[in-house]
Design goal:
This protein has 233 residues and is α+β, with helices and mostly antiparallel strands. The protein has one domain: Jelly Rolls (Sandwich). It contains six helices and ten strands.
Length: 233
Amino acid sequence: MDISNEVVVKKYFLEPTALIPNSPQPLLHYPQLLKDKCNPAKIHQQFDENDWRTQWVFRYGPTQESHYHSRIHECMVVLSGKATIRFGVADTSDDLEESTYRGACEQGGVTIDAQAGDVFVIPAGVAHKTHNTSPGAAFALLTPGKGRGIEATNQKGALEKVNLSGFTMMGAYPKNCGTWDFSVGGEDVGDFEATWSVPKPEKDPLLGAAEQGIRGQWKNVALSKRQDKRAKL
């Protein structure tokens, strides 16, 4: 999959909130990096070659809880449809209608319109919430298993059989770095530093060792300023 000449990257630095650690590393958005190349089996092969593990393909419903992964980085590839993704803040109500459409969330963050072909590399600790999905469809896991890996003898074959409908995304995480949790905000208050210290993978999930990927976009950073910011919350 040759994408080396098609790289546009948008970077978003998200400060910690009262409930969300976020990260010293920027959220990376590669708009249309995989335009017309949204083949789950081929993307899976690219992940594998770069030491990232494909774990799921989900079809998203109209909205979901804002959440983050406290000890692992994540890559999300949009395979079909369109949606809005809000990054960087927690919901402040358990009512999804209120937290999505009536402002029941923390202040700040960034909202990005996502479409098929977009790629997001999300540092550990950065909150995200997918909503306003189109075409509308019910939430569903489209890959065999429970969303913690492709549970099939022939993983590539299983991914070739995935029927993309509605707004779907494919998720991968660095190999041998544990599993993802589903933290909604507040779980790591008092220990944000542990999330900020999650090691940087050696390779970008799709761009490998290229400087356009995390090798060049994520830098080794001191945590002192971020700790000072946290102390003021």
